[in-house]
Amino acid sequence: MSHRDPSPRTLGPDGESHPIYQLKADLFRLLGHPVRVRVLELLRDGELTVGELQAALELDSSGMSQHLTAMRRQGVLESRKSGVKVHYRVKDPRTFQLLAVARQILTSQLEESSAILGDLSADPEAPAAAPGTPARDASAAAPDARRSVGRRGARA
């Protein structure tokens, strides 16, 4: 008995039918490279030439070409030729909304981590600083720290 995938399907950039979750994964995989995210950020204010992108990212022409080709094939970027120059722009402006939501998520996570770190540093029962790092508050050091060293100088 064959198992039919009930997931919604749609046409991908290759013209083939794919489950929507696969296409989403492909998009996120494409955006999983920092250079590609930076390309999108640079294109936020409008199109740029390959040379301008290459200079801003300090990439060689081969590396830049590979990233731009992958992004164009996935349908994230569009290009147009003007004389000898090729200009790139973001195909769908909602891409910038996706980046903005990612920034909001990351900011929220960092704020949460910062709050947790603040709570930990304010905790009077927090352990002393690791060996080799200065303690912030000498009163927070373990009272029996001197006794924790064994006969051979190793921690007990």
TrEMBL record:
Gene3D superfamilies referenced in this protein's UniProt entry, alphabetically: Winged helix-like DNA-binding domain superfamily/Winged helix DNA-binding domain
Protein name as catalogued: ArsR family transcriptional regulator
InterPro entries: ArsR-like_HTH, HTH_ArsR_DNA-bd_dom, Metal_resp_trans_reg, WH-like_DNA-bd_sf, WH_DNA-bd_sf
Keywords in alphabetical order: DNA-binding, Transcription, Transcription regulation
PROSITE patterns, per the entry: HTH_ARSR_2
A family per Pfam: HTH_20
UniProt GO molecular function: DNA binding; DNA-binding transcription factor activity
Highest rank taxon of the organism: Bacteria
Compositionally biased spans, kind Low complexity: 121-143
SUPFAM superfamilies registered for this protein in UniProt: Winged helix' DNA-binding domain
Disordered: annotated span: 117-156
Presence of keyword Ribosomal protein: no
UniProt keyword DNA-binding present: yes
